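Review box. Two proteins, two foldings.
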Amino acid sequence: MSKERIGIVGLGRMGSAMAERLAGQGFTVTGWSRSGVPQQKASALGIAGATNLAALSAASDIIILALLDDAAVHAVVEEIASAHPGGRLIVDTSTVSPETLRAHQTVMIEQDVALLDAPIAGGPEMLLAGTAGFYIGGTDQDFRRFEPVAGVLSNRILHVGKLGDGASAKLVNNMMLMGLWQTMKEAIELGGEAGLSSDKIIEILSGSPAASPAMKSRLPVILGQTDTVGFPVSGVLKDMSVVFEVAARLGVPTPTIDAACQSFRQAAALGHSEADLGTVVRLALEGKG
């Protein structure tokens, strides 16, 4: 059985990583972004560049979205719909509201277009290694269609429920991580005030039962050993805005995430918007948090 043709909409860090990985694994991949796709970039990724969304849709069976926010997803899905993309499967990997794709479900069903939301846990380096996570919402049939593609990008594929449930799962996962960074920041501040050295605090926290793979992966950033950006502070703030929107709509209080947001806003105000999210902990370690 031949592999389905893949279209990638949005060639930022995540979209480019998916395009490169899929092309390298033998998929025919076409990419498009609002800023255009220079031939040099397309060649480096091993993909073809489309001049517009209609051309990308015509060249693709499965269209993967990797976009910044809800507004971008709405605009792209509406434009793809105008190209009469019958038979296509649109998979949104962006971190957006659970209601975003649901808003287009009726129209797309009428056009014989399937929808999945499949936000990603992990960064570009994990996509390139095929070790990212996927939280997928949609029908069993559509999930099975996407599964061979997801399996190239991920070794942690969870079909969590109906359309939109993947987005909910990603927000829940993000909340746990934001709580982790906030708690680590507070632990470092308390330990410092109590007289513990920075080295001893890190030794204690990184070796404790509470130490997570996420924490350990960020230690080089926290210790100032690298300025590599896995996910920026600005991205955290954008993702947390989605958490707040959904929580407010559902009437769920989020005091821990409120505190975490204040910490990330402070890091941004200090000029670290595009630094890795681990910077919020590094600033506390340096006494600047």
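Next protein.
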Amino acid sequence: MRKVVEIEELYGREFNVYVQNSAKMYWNNRYKFSCMETGKPTDMLLFLSSSAGVYELPDGSTVYAPRKSFVYAPKGIKYNFRCTEADEDTYSNVIVNFILTDMDGTEISLCDGIMVMEDLPTARFEKMFLDIAYVSGQNVRFPCGLRSCLYKILAELCSHYHTKNILTGKFQVISKGIIYLEENEELDKSVRDIAAMCNVSEIYFRKLFKEYSGLTPVQFKLNKKIERARQYLVYEGKSVRETAEALGFSEVAYFCRIFKEKTGITPGESRE
């Protein structure tokens, strides 16, 4: 059974993708497509670079997708598509057919209907769609390359809507603090300082941030520091002491204790 996970929710989740294919598409003003009888066999992402069209659903409702928009359709959905505008002789629409699953293998949908996205940075996403179409069009099938391209597209989508949700939703008032905690590597400000950045009290910031992330600001900072510590130890060859000092831990012993609590191994074992 498939479950719906909204795009911004994917930001903090692990998931797998399986790409069936991707291709550049040429549609003229007479182009039509129907999956009304059988339903869409896979999930679909579509970039309408040179065309626009209308999706007609079984209940009689319609969804319009303008030029330069991005469309998502979940597996199983039924619709008729009719192209309403097209640039003749232009093969620049790009389609990606894929399956998205949770880590336990459960299939995921990003919504249960046709979703048209018009607020994305077009140039950046267009390049990513062209990249995956190029990889798919090679003579030798390259599944790893296709998955890498689609992960990049989905990561950008997650990041875009995650940030948009912060800046426009319930957590807008503490958005500066959230962005600081998520994107700043130093994390040298106290919770009181971060709350002051947002012009709210420390108590109110802690309350809202816990609602947002499920963690207190201190827990969130510690998790980020331990994640960064693993990079220092494993990939950058720093010693345990150098890592502790770089991350602002006053005592190496305290750093080692926190590291083991979070990861189940000591910093030294991580290096090995």
